[in-house]
Write a structure and sequence with these properties.
Beta-Lactamase, 6 strands, binds methionine sulfoxide
Length: 160
């Protein structure tokens, strides 16, 4: 049985992320299956922070294809350079979007989503997937989310 997440000593968001990272690493240790690991990582992020939508889009040819996620139904395919996810893929940069309505080309999979962060996962110079997190609140995400999620991307997701 998987151990439950232990974040009870964390008093703020940064501490929560710091406590979470080693637990996420432990969660995927010893399991080689990508989909199984992404599924548990999406569940762990949802459980830790209660995000509205958290999940992965995997690069397949010229398209991002929906992978494991937690939350409402989502768009299944996103083209290179389209939407927040496609721009993150194209630029290889995190996209921190405080108000999705002001982001040109934002793809609204769910009208309740108000702000978003998308972090690319780069291996050998190529984006292999993106981590996408959506919130029902405007400006939900800040530099703390960006710093930790980029650390997660480099130290864990890129090595899966
Ligand atoms: N809003 C994203 C699409 C994916 S959903 O938010 C789950 C985008 O513009 O790329």
């Amino acid at each position: 049985m998987e151990k439950p997440l232990d974040l009870k000593n964390a008093t703020n968001k940064q501490e929560k992320y710091e406590a979470l990272l080693p637990q996420l690493k432990a969660l995927v240790e010893g399991e080689a299956d990508l989909i199984a690991n992404l599924a548990n990582l999406a569940a762990a992020l949802k459980e830790a922070f209660g995000f509205f939508w958290v999940g992965f889009y995997l690069v397949k040819g010229d398209t991002l294809v929906l992978g494991p996620f937690q939350g409402p139904l989502a768009c299944t395919r996103i083209k290179f350079g389209e939407g927040v996810c496609g721009i993150s893929w194209k630029t290889q940069q995190t996209q921190l979007v405080p108000d999705v309505e002001t982001f040109p080309g934002h793809i609204a999979c769910n009208s309740a989503s108000k702000s978003e962060i998308v972090v690319p996962v780069v291996r050998d110079g190529e984006v292999i997937m993106v981590l996408d997190i959506d919130s029902e609140r405007l400006a939900q995400f800040d530099e703390i989310d960006q710093i930790f999620l980029e650390k997660l991307s480099v130290e864990l997701l890129a090595k899966l």
